[in-house]
Amino acid sequence: xxxxxRRQGDRYVVTPAEFESFQxxxxxxxxxxxxxxxxxxxxxxxxxxxxxxxxxxxxxxxxMSGDYxxxxxxxxxxxxxxxxxxxxxxxxxxxxxxxxxxxxxxxxQGLALDYDQLLAKRPHKEDAVFAWHQDLxxxxxxxxxxxxxxxxxxxxxTIENGCMRFVPGxxxxxxxRPHRPLHGDRETSHTLVAEVDEARDPVHCxxxxxxxxxxxxxxxLHGSGGNRSARWRRAYIVAFRALxxxxxxxxxxxxxxxxxxxxxxxxxxxxx
Length: 272
Known about the structure:
Layout lengths: L2 H4 E2 L2 E2 L3 H10 L1 E4 L5 H15 L10 E3 L13 E5 L1 H4 L7 H14 L3 E11 L8 E4 L13 E7 L10 E4 L11 E3 L10 E3 L9 E3 L6 E4 L4 E4 L8 E10 H10 L9 H9 L2
Antiparallel strand pairs: 1-2, 3-13, 4-5, 5-6, 6-15, 7-14, 8-13, 8-15, 9-12, 9-14, 10-11
């Protein structure tokens, strides 16, 4: 079935081979999830966020490659957490709807949209590196950790501009890799760094086209390189997780906002 035929309204059809790839590797590449017209509508709002035209509170507008003290003009990876909170009109958009169908096919029923995020790497920013990590290291541990994180490319994502990289099969390791804060502590920067030996661990660089997505689970090691190109590398992420897990997180006061209080983050760390 051609990719364009796999878009069926709010649904995108995942093939058996793609399902098997997700289970085996911990991630999968799905082609042409959004049409060009759909991308243009998303892009119009996205670029307003990156330009600072839509107000975002506190640390939810930050640089994921640096610390919170950097000025916006110096961001290498422009990060916007929870854009659907700051622009409610975006809620229920086509990516959210189609991603929900993908998540259900890959991880089963009983999922909810947990958080969304924008990550835009500026041109000529070789330091726009998203460190190796496993998403579950950031989150409370719960009995049902099922996750489908859908990563949409608004630009062709290549090795040159910092595409996603994965360690396939790492989601099957019995424990998470050790993680440390990138800049000393979580109050200085949100970012965690996992232990990865690129000479030993198999690394797959996944180049995808505008409108494609990758989907990954909560335990697979992933990150991305810097942007050596003359153009932006923009990504829009929506993450679906078990509804019971989302409810438990909220009961702790954990919202995925970078503005979550330090004591909440410490409580989360004790639960991981």
